[in-house]
Amino acid sequence: MDRIYGTILDAIGDTGMVPLRSIVPAGGARVLLKLESENPTGSMKDRMALAMIEAAEADGTLPAGGPVVEYTGGSTGVSLALVCAVKRHSLHIVSSDAFAPEKLDHMRLLGATVQIVPSENGGMTERLTRDMIEAARVVARATGAHWTDQMNNPAPLAAYRRMADELWAQTGGRIDGFVQSVGTAGSIRGVAEGLREHDARVRVVAVEPAESPVLSGGVKGSHKIDGIGAGYVVPLWHDGIAETIERVSTAEAVAMTRRLAREEGIFAGTSTGANAIAALRLAERLGPGATVVTVACDTGMKYLRSLAVEIGPGRSTHG
Predict the structure, then answer these.
(1) Alpha carbon of 60 to those of 8, 55, 159, 243, 262: distances in Å?
(2) Taking the CA atoms of the chain, what radius of gyration do you get in angstroms?
(3) How far is 13 from 49, CA to CA, in rounded Å?
(4) What are residue 146's DSSP bridge partners?
(5) How far is CA 215 from CA 113, 264, 296, in A?
(6) Distance of alpha carbon 255 from the chain centroid
(7) Dihedrals φ, ψ of 147, to 5°?
(8) I need a labelling partner for 77 at 20 to 30 A (CA). Which of 5, 26, 54, 225 fits?
(9) How many Å apart are CA 97 and CA 20, to the nearest integer?
């Protein structure tokens, strides 16, 4: 049925799912991928950004036309730029050269002012996260802008519970496991809570960078999986969210991103690659007859330059 939206924001959510076919282990569970690239900016963060802005508007902390500030690795900033453009809020983003330049360009094109905090050798570290947070705090204090403060903001949890309802409806209530990487922890926590309201037996697996496995008790470090692995235990996380925490390295995530593109036709970012690896591990453990759901967090179009460097040239033909 044809749909005519009131604004582009009405197109957020209600995304499709697709089964992985070529890369799944023999004798393993069915693996379904939620295609969050269908959201307007190509990212699941559209859900989060809309929830944060609408909550602030509803409680009066963000007046009509008021300014907004946020720190972000990129996708949240792009999503906030979209929402703020439609709702006529000016937006100041604090980000870094550690993240995909396509995201920084996208934010600017949507009208955001982008402030860059330099990284150490292009890696994501705890220090960089904390430097970005402090820079956003300074802007908020100096300008009076509303700070969405994504690491501490519970507003997205309700949006991700709605995503859980979508998953449940799409699978006909057949979900044995849910796998998601951890950035702010808002998506995994909200979806996990929503799924467990339907069935408390759903197994939840969290994914973090192997180079900085702080959630599973490891040593913090530098990694290059955009959008996850802040380098410390984030405020929205608690140990009851997931039964298992899977460690996936940047190299593994990049390699799986390549496989998803070339073997499944699914072009996504490295956090999706990390999700897929952990989902395949769970599928192998659960075996046939089970269903594992994970998330294609965003489109690979956000990472064209960085993935081209990491993956290298493909084969070409002439004729």
Answers:
(1) 23, 9, 19, 38, 48
(2) 19
(3) 12
(4) 68
(5) 33, 30, 22
(6) 18
(7) -100, 115
(8) 5
(9) 33
| Closest by CA position to 277, among listed 249, 239, 306 | 249
Q: How far out from the chain centre does Cα 250 lie? A: 16
Q: In the chain, pLDDT over 70 holds for what percent of residues?
A: 95
The answer to whether the beta carbons of residues 225 and 247 sit under 8 Å apart is no
Domain ranges of the chain: 8-38+161-310, 45-147
pLDDT (tens digit per residue) in 92-140: 999 999 888 888 999 999 999 999 999 988 888 889 989 999 999 999 9
Domain covering 8-38+161-310 in this structure, CATH number: 3.40.50.1100
CA distance 7 to 309: 36
Distance CA 54, CA 248 (A): 34
Provide the b/e sequence for 23-43 (b: ≥16 CB within 10 Å).
bbeeebbbbbbbbbbbbbbbb
Provide the whole-model pTM. Answer: 0.92
CATH topology (fold) of 45-147:
Rossmann fold (3.40.50)
Mean pLDDT, residues 144-154: 97
